[in-house]
Amino acid sequence: MNKNKRTNKEIMAEKQAQKEKLEKDIAKLKKQEKSKKTNKQSWKGEIGDNSFVMIYSSLFTSKAYRDLKPISRDIYIGMVLYAKGNFITEYPYRIYKNICSKATFQTAIKDLVEHGFIEIISSGRFNHRPNNYSFCDKWHNWNNK
Asked: In 3D, which of 70, 74, 56 has the Cα closest to residue 137?
């Protein structure tokens, strides 16, 4: 029997192994895609040099945005940058500590919540994690009180 010739069983076993490898790769890709959809952030670094935020004129000219303090605007834009397109995000201390103090940050968050730009989804206070924030559009209906 020739050494270069493979039997049908060997060919079938090789094809089965290739099929299993492809199925594992597909499952891995689906898992990665699912983790993106659930807003789990694998990105651990600082905001990159090439990051940008698009601000629509309706937001920029709104009464709610104009009424925000400048630090609140900066915090909001920083959160949007950090979220990278996700609607739910955390904003860890290591990011905003370079912008302002913790007390100023907390005041800015209250300001953003009152003006309808974000909502606090979950508090990380008791498990030593950052809060989870959700971006919202309640600012459309905000009126200066």
From this structure: 56
- First and final C-alpha spacing in the chain: 92
The answer on pLDDT for 93 being more than 50 is: yes
Query: Which CATH number belongs to the domain containing residue 128 in this structure?
Result: 1.10.10.10
Average pLDDT in the chain: 81
Specify whether the CB–CB gap between 122 and 132 falls below 8 A. yes
What is the side-by-side strand order in the sheet with 88-90? Answer: 88-90, 132-135, 118-122
Q: What is the domain range of residue 8?
A: 1-38
Q: Considering the domain boundaries, does residue 48 fall inside one?
A: no
pLDDT single digits (tens) 56-69: 899 899 999 999 99
Counting Cα atoms < 13 Å in the Cβ hemisphere of 102 gives 4
Q: Which residues pair with 118 in a beta bridge?
A: 135
- Quickly tell me which residue has 């989870």 as its tokens: 132
In a domain, 52, yes or no: no
Whole-model pTM? 0.63
